[in-house]
Design goal:
single chain, 470 residues, globular
């Protein structure tokens, strides 16, 4: 994974980029190539659906070296997606409804607060490859993970471990650790942390499967990230799920960096449970409602659950008899009233997704990410000896080269101080993020990023590295 051989292989989208280069007679690094790709891009119109920050509006931008009226280079959708233009309109509708109708807003309008989430979860289910009954929208990601672990992590003296990647996102790690402690077990003995081979950055699927085979009889739950937040590696969800379940383990996924970024088929893959946030590639706004998946094969099981009023069927909920009559499916996990003011922004984003498909987004994403990958490898893939201004700079791409093992994100490791590089990128209006000790994450999101954005990024990266390397 991630080798030059993979980059040159016949199935890599770089081959398509080279074919186009030969067809139109320009170099890959020429702006004319980026403009041609944007002109031919069938999804380019979706950019107009989003509010794009201008250089002049962002803190830390040096307006003496960039055009204040120009769009920033927004490669940070892996952290927070851009705001759909319809969001403000839909939010204002709900505020006005509250002003004008007060409590009647619970059962009136386009998004009645009492069941506003139920008008959106069908569209969400399509994005993750699930049935409507398997998906609900509620809480935040880690809250949903805890609620699901109540059901699926039921340790016994023989089967008490949780398997996860060694560099799991801290919130996931804390959730697993605390669940283990709540059940009276020792996290040091109960957490199986998978690490890459020495000298490598990525987990190999064959090593994950081997570890499952080795320790599976003592593992209660396997829970990985769909896309690893640090490296950008997209795990082979179907293979890992199948292997874990064959050993009697429940298998779940944190899809925070995968949903809206990779094609998912949770139902067909037989995933037991999953959870995700919606503010990254799903563009719902900071801290918005999270998603929860509960496979239908468990609908009529005796798995324990925490209960709340909103998990009770609507038709008998208001009898107030304290006789538990849960929904069948994911709705049974709902505990509290859905926040009505968190649904409008999610509605605005899901409407944009309905104008395309995940397969179309992935097709563009593969080309867009390969274009960025190719330019980085061409410019910084090895130390230069030809008098280049950045002769002492090398950029290593940690993310797999295989397009089937990554989404939009590339994690870049630099041979120079990334804090300085990151600061210089910010001065030029490049929105990305850094993860210590040496990684800057960049994500050209296909919904709203262009090939010209990639070309501009490379220009600003070159300037930033020159400034940081002085």
């Amino acid at each position: 994974m991630g080798s030059n051989t993979d980059f040159q292989s016949d199935h890599h989208p770089y081959r398509e980029l080279k074919r186009i280069v030969e067809k139109i007679g320009v170099n890959l690094e020429d702006r004319a190539f980026a403009l041609y790709m944007d002109q031919e891009d069938p999804l380019s119109h979706l950019r107009k659906e989003f509010a794009y920050p201008k250089m002049k509006m962002l803190k830390g931008v040096d307006l003496s070296i960039v055009d204040p009226e120009e769009d920033c280079v927004y490669f940070c959708g892996n952290s927070l997606g851009l705001c759909p233009k319809k969001t403000k309109e839909y939010m204002n509708i709900e505020v006005e409804k509250w002003e004008q109708t007060a409590v009647q807003g619970h059962t009136n309008g386009d998004l009645p607060w009492a069941w506003c989430d139920e008008l959106l979860d069908g569209d969400m289910a399509k994005i993750v490859g699930a049935t409507k009954e398997e998906v609900c929208l509620m809480n935040g990601l880690t809250v949903n993970l805890h609620l699901l672990l109540i059901s699926f992590y039921r340790p016994t003296p023989e089967r008490y471990k949780i398997m996860l990647e060694g560099k799991a996102f801290p919130s996931d790690y804390y959730a697993f650790e605390s669940q283990i402690l709540l059940h009276g077990y020792n996290p040091k003995e109960s957490m199986v942390l998978l690490q890459p081979r020495e000298g490598e950055d990525l987990l190999r699927t064959e090593d994950i499967l081997a570890k499952i085979e080795e320790e599976g009889d003592s593992i209660a739950v396997i829970c990985f990230s769909g896309v690893q937040y640090y490296t950008g590696q997209l795990f082979e969800i179907d293979k890992i799920t199948k292997a874990g379940q064959a050993k009697g383990c429940y298998v779940g996924w944190d899809l925070a960096h995968a949903v809206g970024n990779a094609e998912l088929n949770l139902h067909d893959w037989g995933v037991d449970f999953a959870c995700w946030c919606t503010y990254k590639y799903l563009n719902s706004g900071a801290g918005c409602l999270a998603g929860c998946f509960f496979h239908e094969k468990h609908f009529h099981s005796d798995l324990p659950q925490l209960r709340g009023w909103w998990g009770h069927k609507m038709d008998t909920r208001f009898r107030m008899e304290n006789k538990w009559e849960p929904y069948v499916g994911a709705y049974s996990y709902r505990i509290s009233n859905t926040p009505g003011f968190l649904c409008p922004s999610l509605k605005a984003s899901l409407e944009i997704f309905k104008k395309t498909s995940m397969s179309a987004l992935r097709k563009k994403s593969n080309l867009l990410t390969a274009y960025l990958e190719a330019l980085i490898n061409q410019k910084y893939g090895r130390h230069k000896t030809d008098g280049d201004n950045n002769s002492h700079v090398c950029v290593k791409i940690l993310t797999p080269t295989d397009p089937n093992q990554r989404g939009a994100q590339l994690s870049l490791s630099f041979s120079v101080n990334i804090t300085r590089v990151f600061a210089e990128l910010q001065k030029r209006g490049v929105m990305c993020d850094e993860r210590k000790p040496s990684v800057i994450r960049v994500a050209p999101v296909p919904l709203y990023c262009s090939f010209e954005d990639v070309h501009r990024f490379m220009k600003y990266l070159d300037e930033a590295l020159q400034a940081a390397n002085k």
